[in-house]
């Protein structure tokens, strides 16, 4: 009976020992993925800021500029690209919509970002673009990989249409989460005019004929949850200028937009709560369950060996030794 129990325990020990690496190296890449139909909205604000007044063609101080950034999963395009790519692909149609203090549109920049659902590596396919211009991304954008590492990453900048390193600057605590802080500075760079302008009748081609050029620089900061790779906070110190503007605006350089852009408080709270709930699933697959199964397998193996050892011991003797046989006393005849 003990030998049979030890074999059963040994079978369970082998099962749990096999499940530990299976969860980490097989199940995790297949289960931890960005859903193709995800929708996310984030509101950022710059308070105060400098903004170009297109009516007077002068830069003015304003109380607030609002940036609404939406990411919408395009399921139909994901399926189309997956058929050729042979892997799970996510297509995000993004829009950065900038509103002035009066609530009117200042600019809007659409993007299509195509990437691997698990690794977040870019997937190059027809339709990848920024503001209608075809691009070929290198590196990440919007989201870091699951299990983010303490190292620099290539980060795609939508304004310049180029990628550059974003540097790991250390581990910090943010709203109760241990996060990795990343920072990138984009130097002053000439960038394209937005396709959609805030004044009707003004087009990028029309501005180009006047000799105007648009320049941009930013300091980009992200606080990343290393388990899910999701940003729990993001900020930019952002500046844009129009140069060679004397013929049209009376001076060589005019500030279009300048301000310290930060996520609005209610969206920070929402994102932190979302990340805390999602990181548990990732930790279960890569840490909690594999280590629990490993420890359980070792305990079951030890118990199985102990029972096997006990089953091989000789059985102890039962009863008492009767000693030498004695017969009845012979009768003695009377004298």
Which of globular, elongated, flat, extended, rod-shaped describes the shape? elongated
Strand count, sense and barrel status of the largest sheet are: 13 strands, antiparallel
Estimated structural class:
alpha+beta
Q: Report the total helices.
A: 5
Gyration radius (Cα, Å) is 34 Å
First-to-last CA distance = 66 Å
Average pLDDT taken over every residue: 90
Instruction: Say how many strands there are.
Output: 13
**Low-pLDDT regions:** 329-335
Give the H and E element order.
HEEEHEEEEEEEHEEHEH
Proportion of β residues? 35-45%
Helix content estimate? 25-40%
Task: Please describe the topology of this protein.
Blueprint lengths: L1 H30 L7 E15 L4 E5 L2 E9 L1 H11 L3 E11 L5 E12 L12 E2 L2 E2 L18 E5 L4 E13 L2 E15 L12 H6 L3 E12 L6 E13 L2 H4 L3 E11 L1 H47 L24
Antiparallel strand pairs: 1-2, 1-3, 1-13, 3-4, 4-5, 5-6, 6-7, 8-9, 9-10, 10-11, 11-12, 12-13
Helix pairs in contact: 1-5
Task: List descriptors.
single chain, 335 residues, alpha+beta, 13-stranded antiparallel beta sheet, 5 helices, disordered C terminus
In short:
The protein is of the alpha+beta class. It contains five helices and 13 strands.
How would you explain this protein's 3D organization?
The chain has 335 residues and is an alpha+beta fold. It is built from 5 helices and 13 strands. It has helices at 2-31, 75-85, 204-209, 246-249, 265-311, and strands spanning 39-53, 58-62, 65-73, 89-99, 105-116, 129-130, 133-134, 153-157, 162-174, 177-191, 213-224, 231-243, 253-263. Strands 1, 2, 3, 4, 5, 6, 7, 8, 9, 10, 11, 12 and 13 form a 13-stranded antiparallel sheet that branches. Strand 1 (39-53) and strand 2 form a beta hairpin. The chain is elongated and about 110 Å long. The two termini are 66 Å apart. The relative contact order is 0.15. The model is unreliable at 329-335 (pLDDT under 50).
